[in-house]
């Protein structure tokens, strides 16, 4: 049977591009949105695709516990969960932490605790880490410090907590589980290029939202993807890039304190 995919943050610009790609693979997609007026945007963007689309109106702002996240999971009954949601800088630091960190962690915990859910893909950010990546140069590290401590300190803190929660709980689960953390650079609305830099990339650069959506679908459809994948625009064909990172077993968690991360969370 086609997989059932729960897409959290369904009206986001990346999500609107993911949805037809998921449906083109005949997947059953439940798109969660806050504003019922956005339903027509999602439906019109997905006409003619072989997959089945459902729209679920619910606010992630109201998810204050694992139990509340579980209620949404119970409605959608997904096999796979995709988090492409966020406060988007609206509502100040308090809302950023409430959605990008707390609600995300509630969904991660509920998903990993649900045996029928086998995959969770998190759309994160390329500088969402605590330590300097071994492949970065001084300019990359300077960009990391600028973004994480000056430009977007609250967003950066919220995202790294959510990413670490996914990694930690996935490694504690007994049943097979794919935790996929896709970490794009600065997003643009340019047309898709089909050419990317995936894996151990620089810490600065752009990538189109359309290419992010494409790589997300490619990572999600496979049974051998797991870990952190950094993503920028580049010169490698998207399909070949995914094949390469899988073949070479690339995981951009390299350089982080994995034992410390896993120790912070208990399933």
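^ Assign residues to that structure.
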């Amino acid at each position: 049977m086609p997989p059932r995919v729960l897409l959290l943050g369904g009206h986001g610009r990346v999500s609107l591009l993911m949805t037809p790609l998921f449906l083109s693979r005949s997947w059953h997609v439940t798109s969660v949105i806050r504003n019922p007026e956005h339903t027509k945007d999602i439906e019109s963007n997905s006409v003619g695709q072989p997959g089945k689309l459902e729209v679920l109106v619910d606010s992630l702002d109201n998810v204050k516990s694992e139990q509340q996240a579980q209620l949404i999971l119970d409605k959608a009954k997904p096999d796979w969960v995709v988090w492409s949601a966020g406060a988007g800088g609206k509502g100040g630091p308090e809302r950023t932490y409430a959605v990008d960190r707390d609600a995300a962690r509630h969904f991660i915990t509920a998903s990993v605790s649900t045996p029928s859910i086998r995959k969770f893909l998190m759309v994160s950010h390329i500088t969402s880490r605590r330590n300097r990546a071994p492949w970065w140069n001084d300019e990359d590290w300077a960009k990391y410090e600028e973004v994480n401590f000056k430009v977007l300190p609250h967003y950066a803190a919220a995202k790294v907590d959510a990413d670490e929660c996914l990694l930690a709980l996935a490694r504690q689960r007994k049943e097979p589980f794919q935790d996929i953390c896709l970490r794009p650079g600065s997003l643009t609305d340019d047309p898709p290029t089909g050419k990317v830099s995936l894996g151990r990339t620089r810490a600065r650069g752009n990538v189109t939202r359309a290419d992010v959506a494409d790589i997300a679908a490619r990572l999600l459809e496979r049974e051998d993807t797991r870990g952190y994948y950094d993503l920028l625009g580049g010169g490698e064909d998207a399909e070949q890039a995914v094949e390469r990172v899988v073949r070479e077993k690339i995981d951009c968690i390299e350089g982080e304190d994995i034992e410390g991360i896993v120790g912070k969370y208990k399933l």
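The mean pLDDT is 97.
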